[in-house]
Amino acid sequence: MKSNESRMERPSTEARKRNISVCIIDDEESLVTVLKEELADRGFDVETALNGSDGIRALEKREFDVCLLDMNMPGLNGLEVLKKAFEQAVHTEFIIQTAYANVQTAVESIRLGAYDYVTKPCSLERITLLIRKAHEKRVIKRESLIHKRLREGRGGIITHNAGMLKILAEAEKVARTDATVLLLGESGTGKELMAEYIHANSSRSGGPFIAFNSAAIQENLIESELFGYEKGAFTGANSAKEGLFELADGGTIFLDEIGEIPQQMQVKLLRAIEKGSFYKVGGTKEFKVDVRIVAATNQDLRKMAGQGFREDLYYRLSSVRLVLPPLRERKDDIPVLVEDFLARLPAGYRKTFDGAALDLLIKYDWPGNIRELKNVLNRAAILTDSD
After folding, report:
1. Contacts for 188 with CB less than 8 Å, ≥ 6 apart
2. DSSP sequence for 52-85
3. What pTM was computed for the model?
4. Which of 107, 149, 205, 295 shows a CA-CA span of 20 to 30 A to 269?
């Protein structure tokens, strides 16, 4: 055990570097206590379980970066925990610990995806180093997976930017749930593409994805667009019409510019989100739907809450908030975005940019974000005769 004084010195240098989450699954309570204290002092976020069953529950409840897993435990042993994690596609790097070295067990654990295998007792320095290396491997694997999905066109998002990749990783986690998502960001940052990405990575990907721009529809038509209307509901309603909520049943509805929804519609929208049901305009029959809501705005809804925008609707929409960065904060993406946009032009208009031209694009701040970049490239490709 280290002295209290030495423990107090470490967080200032190491805790600021990273906040790696670690799960310790081991039946030796005294060892677990010491490991938890020492790793926490080094800036790691540590949770523990004293048997395999509790360990599995911890891994199901939360996605850890690294798991220190004891091989020899009563009940579910380490190999059985590892097999269950493998079957459930748990995205955690496992470091196996055991007091009884066994080559066959080591080979089997590595085959199941464990990062490494160590024999007890193992120095704290070595364990700390292994955790960091395992975490680095996990980050690389996750980024490779995201890049693969991006290449496959899942959501159409193009990025190499570290901050944007982190947001995409968060979006993937959210996509596996039915949580309502609020996308924030300036106009032109790709909020609809992010909504499509969440839908494509969800269990609803086989269902419809329907986008609705609240600012593009007249106020008196928003209710009928979202919920539909019955025959005879108003002059000209010669037949019943399905609304977007009904059409999106089993899928996702994207409510863009949600801050523009008029107050009288906010109550009805809140009910539809909370109850999963609505009434058509002019109707008395309640319609039940299973719809996932993703909303977006370039406004500060938090400030608007209670001042023209209902607080209860704001909190219901913002179960999860994802903030998309402006293009000026991800300039390392400009070269790949340029390449992608130019490649999508008709063959007769495809151009290439020399280094000086690309430098100009990178130096510009792009107040209109990705939308402005795309429009500039289209205009340049059409109006210039040479590259």
Report:
1. 327, 368, 369, 370, 371, 372
2. HHHHHHHHHHS--SEEEEES--SSS-HHHHHHHH
3. 0.62
4. 205
